[in-house]
Each structure stands twice: as C-alpha cells, then as structure tokens.
TrEMBL record:
Membrane topology type: Multi-pass membrane protein
Quaternary structure note: The complex comprises the extracytoplasmic solute receptor protein and the two transmembrane proteins.
Domain of life: Bacteria
GO molecular function per UniProt: transmembrane transporter activity
Organism annotation: Roseivivax isoporae LMG 25204
Transmembrane regions listed in the UniProt entry: 33-56, 62-84, 105-126, 159-177
The protein's role, per its UniProt record: Part of the tripartite ATP-independent periplasmic (TRAP) transport system.
Name this protein carries in UniProt: TRAP transporter small permease protein
GO cellular component: plasma membrane
Location(s) in or outside the cell: Cell inner membrane
Amino acid sequence: MSESEPEHPDVRENRGAIPEAGALGRWVDRGGLVFAAGIVVAMLILIQEVVLRYVFNDPTIWAHETTVFLCGVAFVYGGLYCAARDSHIRVVLVYDTLGPRMRRLFDIAISAVCAVASAFFAWAAWLMVSRAAFAPDGAIRLERSGSAWNPPYPGLVKIFLLLVMAALAVQFVVLAWNHARGRR
C-alpha cells in the first residue's frame, strides 16, 4: 500500500496488544517473544536430533519430549496472546454488520462470556494440577512422562495451563470492563 492510500478502517496494523487489554495485555504481548523463541529452540533441537540420529547413529533420549513441551507451552500461551491482541479467529458475519454502539455491546458480552468460560477452564485445570503436582499426603510431586528420560514435563504443562487460563479469565474481565467504560 502506498503512502497516499488510506488504510481500510477494518484493517488494524500489527501494533501489539489493544488498548482495552490494559497493562496485563501489554505484559502478555511482550511475553510472546519468549514463547516464539521456544519454538525456534525446538526447531534447533529437532535439527540436532536428525543429525545425531541419521549421521552419527546416536540419537538422544530427550529431544522429542523437550520439543513437544516447548511447542505445547507456546500453543497454550498463544490463546492468551491472541486475546490481548484481539487477533483471535472470529465469525464476523453478524459483527461486521453492526454499528459502533452495538459492536461495543457485543465486545462487552463476548468478553464477559469468555471470562466465565476461561474461569471454568481454569477450575478444570486446577483439578488436573491437584492430581499432577501433589502426592496424596500433600507433598509436591510433579507428574512425570514415564519414558526412559522421565522429565516432569506433563506436570509442568498442567501447571502452566492453569496459570494461563487464570490469566485469560482476568484478561477477559479487563477487556469487558474497558469496553464497558468505552476506554481506548
């Protein structure tokens, strides 16, 4: 697009978290770089594993589980990241036909419903964490993979999911509140 062409009003440049996401959204947006780097690290680990396995016939026992863990936490974080940036997938058949006032009401209602849903998912994640992170006597004992290497990645992913779902519920409350106030 040239300098003289006006930007379409429905097209928003990639500028980070939307203003309605507040400080939490800005923090989540900056944190996205950490998880993007994790995906790059996972790719490097896989390249190393291919070389070790097929060139030197000496594979590792940790590469597969580590890359699954790194990619898994990145995808979990991606939901929170997209909510803060308002870049999630949505069906806009009705939304795009609405005027600004009705869009604002829809934004409030959608954010409130998503906050409740995220809170329920956080509760479900807590139920998983209570079994994956604590022994029956209350001692901390992370669930392990059961492989030859046996890292605590399953327990860590479940704890991370709980934290992200709780943060997502808070993020949607912030969005609903700021949409209701008409804050930009």
